## 1
Amino acid sequence: MISIGELRSLLERYGVRPSKSKGQNYLVDRRVAEREVEYLGISPGDRVLEVGPGFGILTEALLQRTQDVTAIELEPGAVRFLRDRYPQVNVLEGDFLEVDVPPFDLFLSNVPYSISSPLLFRLLDMDFKRAVIMVQREFAERRAASAGEKEYSRLSVNVHYRAECKLLENVPRSRFWPEPEVDSTVVLLTPRPAPFTLKDEKHFMRMVDVLFQQRRKKIGTVLKMKDMIKKEERKDLPYMDQRVEELSPEQIGELSDAIQRL
C-alpha cells in the first residue's frame, strides 16, 4: 500500500486538490496495480498507453515490465510529478478525449468515473490488442450485460459488437483515496471482428443510439417517434412489438438491415 500520508504529501507538493466532480480517486494498493499490469500481458515490442496515471502507481508497475510507455494526464500538477519521477515515460498533457493519441498496442487506465462512457466509446474506435481498465462496478456490469438484463444498455451493444469483455476482479472502495462512494471492477477488453455482418454499420450505430433513449418502449413505437420508419412499414419489419431492452445486438442488426432494404 502507498500510505495516505505519502500521497497527501505529493498532492500538496504538486498543488493538486482531488476533485470529486472529475472523479479523482487515487488507487493506493500496489498489489492491485501489479495485477492490472499482469492482466495486460505485455510482450516485447508492445507500446503501452496509460491514461490518467495520476501519481504513478500503475506507471511504476508498468516500468517493471517495459520502458515503452506513453502517459496522457490532464492534471498539470500530476504531469509535473510524472516528468520529474519518470523521465523515460513520454508524458502528454491533455484530455484523452481531445488529444492526438499516438499508436499503441496495449491500453491501461484506472478510469476517472466522470469520463467512463466517452473514454470507452473513443477507445473502441481505435486499433489496439488489449485494454485493461478499472471502472466503477455498476458501469462494468452495464458493459457486460445481455439483452433482458437490467443493466443492458447502448454501451452493452457497442462493446459486444467490437470486443470481448471480461470482468476480472472487484476492487473495494477502501483501496482508493479519497475513498469513493462505490466499488470498482477491473475489466479486460480484447477487440475482435464483429460477430455479425451489417449492410450499414453507421445506420446500425445510429439506430442503437435512438432505441436506447427509450429502452422500455416497443421497438415500433420508438422508430416511428424518431421518424426512422413510416407507420405503414411496421408490418414489413421484425420485432416491432418487442421492447428495446429485449433485443440482442444481433437482432438489432437484423432489424437495421431490414430497414435498409425498405
## 2
Amino acid sequence: MKVVVLDGFLAGYGTGGLPLDPARFAVEWYDDTPPGQIAARIGDAEAVFTNRAPLTAETFAACPCLRFAGTFGTGYNMIDLEAARRAGVTVRNVPSYSTMAVAQSTISLLLSIACATPEHARYVREGRWVSPTDPQVAGRRMFELAGRTLGVIGYGEIGRAVAKTAAALGMEVLACRRRPAPGDGTARMVPLGELLAKSDVVSIHCPLTDETRGMVDAEMISRMKPGAVLLNTARGAILNERDVADALDSGRLYMAGLDVLSEEPPAPGHPLAFHPRVICTPHVSWMPVETRERLLRLAAENLTRFAAQGEL
C-alpha cells in the first residue's frame, strides 16, 4: 500500500520515523511539500499523512485513489473535512499525544514571565551581573505564583494538566468550558465572566472553532483583572492579536506567553511576535523527541488499524 508523508520533517527529526510494517506499506517521505506539489506527490497513493500541508477539495478531486488522510497532530484545520467526506476519505488525527509536553510548555512560559528569566539571562550575557543597588531587578516586576489565581479556558486534557501543575505551585485554579462539567478537585468550575474577573493569569486551551476564533478581543480583555498575564498554547487565531497588542501597550495586560500565532511564521511587523512584552516560542510545545515518537507511533497505529478493518 502506497503511503505519502507530505511534511514529516518536524515530526520525524531525531526519531525512527513512521513505524509501519514495510512488508505492507510503501512509504514515500517528504520533509516538506510546497502547496503546488501536494496533489502530484500524493498521486495514486491510498494514504497520506500531513502535519501542516493543506488537503483541500481540489486535492481530493485530483487524487481519486486516496482513502485515508492522517494528521501528525490533534487538529484538523489543515484538512477540508467536508471535501474528504464527499470523496470517501477517512480522516484520523492523534489526540492526547502531547498533553504533558504542551502543559510543560505552558507552565514554562508562565515561569519565564514570573521570574523574568529571558531578561536576566540577557543581563548576564551582557556582563551586567546584579549589584546590590542595581535597578534592573527592582524595576522589573518579578512575582510569586503561590497564592495567585490561574484561569483555564478550555478544560480538556491539556487544561487539566496545566491546572494540576499550577496547583502544585500553590496557585488557586479556576476553569470554564463550553460544556458544563463538575470540578475535579483541582480547579473550581466557574462562569467565564467570574474567571476573567478573578484570574491573575488566563491560559487558553480550547480548540479553534468558528465560535472561538478571535474570542480574546478587547471586550474580553476589558473583563480581565488589570495587569493580568495571558498564555496561549492552543491556536493563534483564538486571539484578536491587534487587540492583545493594544492591551499590552496600554498596560491592561502585563505580559503574554505564546507558542502559537495566527500566521506562522509571522510576517515582519506582526503585532505580537516581536512585542517587547511577549515571550513567543515558534509553535514547539509539541516537539520533545519522546512526544514526537509517541505521535508517529499513534499515527501509524491509526493507519494500520484502518487497513486491518478491510477499508483499504
## 3
Amino acid sequence: MKKIVSVLLTAAFFVLLGVPALSFDVSTTKEEVVYGILATDGSVQDLYVVNSFPGGAIVDYGDYSDVYNMSSSEPLLVEGDLVSIDTTVDRFYYQGTLKKKALPWQVAIQYELNGEKLPAADLAGRDGALKIQMDITQNKEVNAAFYDNYMLQITLALDTERCSGIKSPDGTIANAGKDKVIAHFVLPGQDKTISVTAQVRDFVMSGIEMTAMPFVMRIDMPDTDEFTQDLNKLSDAVGELNDGVEELSSGVDETHSGSRKLVDGSAKFADGLEKLSNNSQGILNASAKIRTALRDVAQGIEQGIGTFSLEDLEALPGALRELSGGLTEVAGGLTALKTGYAQAYSALHLAISSIPDVDLDPTGLYMAVAGDGVLTATLDGLMGYYQAGKTVKGTYAAVEEAFAAVEGNLETVIGSLDAMAGILTGMADEIEQSLSRMDIAAQLQKLQAGLSRLADNYGKFHTGLGKYAGGVKDLVGGYKEVNRGIRSLSKGIGELNTGASELYEGTSELHEEVSQLPDKVQAEIEDIIDRFDKSDFVPISFVSDKNTNVEMTQFVLKTMPVEKPDVSKPPIEKPENLNLWQKVLDLLGLYSR
C-alpha cells in the first residue's frame, strides 16, 4: 500500500512540476503582426494578432476573446491571459482576437464632396470634387513606445478611370496599372494631416492601407567642418556689417546734432532776412523822403536866389544836417542788420557744412539685410534721408554765392549812405562859412549846383536801393521754402537717427545670433540624429508586457472600402484549400477569391 501511495505521489509531483514549468519558466521567442480592420472613418472595428514562434514548448500572454491555431490541429491551452502549447511543428502560428480595440495612433478620416461633408457610404457612385482628409494623432491610452519609435506608411489607390486631377500635398503619387497610388509617411513621434483631392465620377475606392514598423535608420554624423567654416565666414562678414552700421549710426547721430544746429541757424537766418526785408521798406521810404527833400531844396534855391532872405539862408545848414542825420541813422540800422545777418549766415553755413559730404554705395548693405523686411525698410529710410541731406547740401551750394553777396551789398549801401551824409554835412558847413562872405548870391548858385548834382546822384542811389529792397523781398520768399525744407530734413534726420539706432540694434542681434550659428547647427544636427536614430530601440509586445522575448512587432491596417451595394446573388463557390497566409487574409476579410 505504501508503495502504491509513493508511486502516486511521485507521479503527481512530476505532473505538478510540469505545469508550472510550461506556464511560467519557458522564455519563448516570438513575433507579432497586428492586423486591424478600420471603418471608413478610421475607427477600429477589429484587431487580430498573428503570433509566431519556433516549435516546441510555447508560453504566451494576451487578452484575447478568441484564439485560433493556424499551424496544426493541436489544441491551445488558454487560462486567463495565458496561452500555451507544446507543438511539434517547426514554426507555429496562432491568431488571437483582441478584446481591447485600441491602436497607438488615432485615425480620423473625413470625406467631402463638392464642399459638403458626407459619410463614406454616401459617396459611392457619386460625381464631383472629392476631398479626403486623414488626421493621424497619438493615442495616449496605448504604450507610447510604438508612437515614438514606429513609422507609419499610408497608401490609398484611386482608379484613374473614375478619378482625375489627383493631388496630395507632401505625398508621393505613383502609377500601378490603371490606379494612382498615393503614399504618405508619418515619422516617429509626429502627428500628420493628409489631404487628397480629385475630380471623381461614379466613385468607388478600395480600403486605405496602413503599415507600421520600427523606424530603423542608422545616421552617421556628417562632416560639418567645411560648413562650419562657411558659417564662421558669414559671422565675420556680419560682424563687419555690424561695425559699419555702428559707424553709420554714430555718423547719423552727429548729423542729427548738426541738423538741429542747422534748424536753429536757419531760423535765425530767416528771421534776419525778414527783418532786413521789413527794414528795407522803411529805409526805402526814408530814402524817398530824402530824395524829395534834396530836390525841393535844390529847386527852392534855384527859384529863390534873387529873393532869398538871410533868415532862409541861415536855416538851410540845419535842414541839410537833418538830412545828413537821417542818412546816418539809416546807415546805422543797416550796420546792425548786417551784423545780425552775418551771425545768422555763419550759423547756417556751419550747420550745412556739418552734413557729411560722402557718396555711399548701398549695394553691400542691401545684400547683407536681404530677406529681413524690417531691416530692409529701415535701410530704405536711411537712404531716403541720406539723399535728402545730399539735396539740401547741393541746393545750398547753388545759392551760397547769393547768400554771401548780401553782406557785401549791405556794406556798399552803408558806405554810400555815409558818403552822402558827409556831403550834406560838408554843404551845411560851407553855407555857414559863406554867410560871412559878401557874395552870397554866388555862393547860393554854387550851393544850388551842388545840391542839384547830389539830388540827381541820390535819385540813382534810390533807384538801386529800391531794386535791392525788391531782391531782399524775393530772397525772403524763397528762403521760407528753404527753411521749411531744412526743418523737414531735420525731422527726417531725427527719424533716420532712430532708424539707424534700431538698425544697429538689429545688426548687433543678428551678429550675436550668427556668431552662435556653428554651435547651434551642430547641436541641431545632433538633435535630429538623436530623434531619428532608433537603433537602440528594443522591440516590445503590443499584446502584453508579460511577453519579454519579442523579436518583432508590426502593424497591418486597412479601412473598409467605399463601394456600391452588390445586389446580385453571390456565386456558389467550391471549397478552396488555402495556405497559411491565405488563411490569415481570409480571417481578416482581406482574401480575394
## 4
Amino acid sequence: MTWFDTPVDAVEAAAYRVPVPVGEADGTLQWDGTTIVVVHVCAGEMRGLGWTYADRACVSLIQGILGDAVRRTGTLQPQANWHAMQRAIRNLGRPGLVSCAMSALDTALWDLSARLAGLPLSRLLGQVRDEVDVYGSGGFTTLANSELQAQIEDWAHEKRIPRVKIKVGESWGSRTNRDLSRVEFTRKVAGDDVDVYVDANGAYSVGQASRMARRLTEWNVSWFEEPVSSDDLSGLARIRGVADADVAAGEYGYDLVYFEQMLAAEAVDCLQVDVTRCGGYTEWLRVAALAAARNIEVSAHCAPNLSTPVAVATPNFRHIEWFIDHDRIESEFFDGATTPLGGVVAPAAGLGHGMTLREVDARRYRVA
C-alpha cells in the first residue's frame, strides 16, 4: 500500500478560544480573543494536522458533512478529497465558515500525505525556494504610542524584519488625522531602511482613500491594504490608479471565482490569500496560478506557520504576514512553530509541515 491509497480512519476537530492580553481593534472591528479550530486526520497511527481561525461552528462541519465526504473517498488523495468536500457542501454555500472548515481539513490532509510519503510538506507541494520574506503585523488602533513603539522595535530591531504594518482607518475612517499621526510615528520608530505598510480594513470611502494615498507618500508607505472594502473592486482599482503604494486585498477570498473577479478588475498590485479561508493548500495553488497568469504576486494573509510550506512552493510569492496574534497562538499551541529572523522564514524541519499540537497546553482554551 502506498501513501496515496491509504484509508482515512478518522477526522477529529476541536475549537479553542484564546483571549488577547488587552482588547484590540482595527478600522472596522474590535475583538478580545481569537478562536482557532484544530483538525486531525488519522490513518493508522499517523495524524495530519491543520487549522483555521474561525468560529467554533466549524467543528460540526468538519466532524459531520466534510469528514463524511473525505471518508467516503476511501483513500488519502488530497485533490480527490477536496472535490468530494466541494460536492458535499453544494446546498450549504461555499464562502464563509464552510470554506474555513474545508481549509482546515484540506491542510490536515496534505500534512498527513507528506508524513506518510516520508517527505516535508513543502517538497510534496513543489518547493521552489528555501525561504520567504515576512513582515511584522499588528499595530492595532487601540495601542498607545508606547505599545506601538514596542511592537515596531521588536520587529524591526530585535527580529530584524525590514517590513512592518500598522492598522489605520480608525473608527470607520473617522479619525484620519490620528491615522496620519500614527503613520508618521511608525516611520520615526522604524527608521528609513524599513518598509512601512498600512491596512485600513476597508474603512475608507474612495474619496478618503484617495486623499490618504497622497498623504502616505510623505512617509514613503509602500503597501496600502484594503483602502476601501474588498467588495468594491472598482473602488480598489481607482485607488490603485492614484496610489504610489501597492494596493493589496484578497484576504476574504473563499473561492477561486472571487480571486478571478478581483484579478480581472485589475484591483490589486498584490493578491492576498489566506490558506485558512480560501480552501486550503489545494485552492491556494490554483489561486497563485491565476495570479501568475496576470504577472501578479501573492502574499499570505495571517496563519504564518501554516502558510510557510505552500509559500516556498509558490513561484510568484512576495511575503507572509507574521500577524502578532496568530504568532502568539501558534507558538503556544504547536511544537515546531518557527520564528522569523532577518526578515525571512524557512519551513519547519521534519515530515509534513513539521508541527504537532501541544494538547496539554491547548486544553485550557478548549470551547468545543
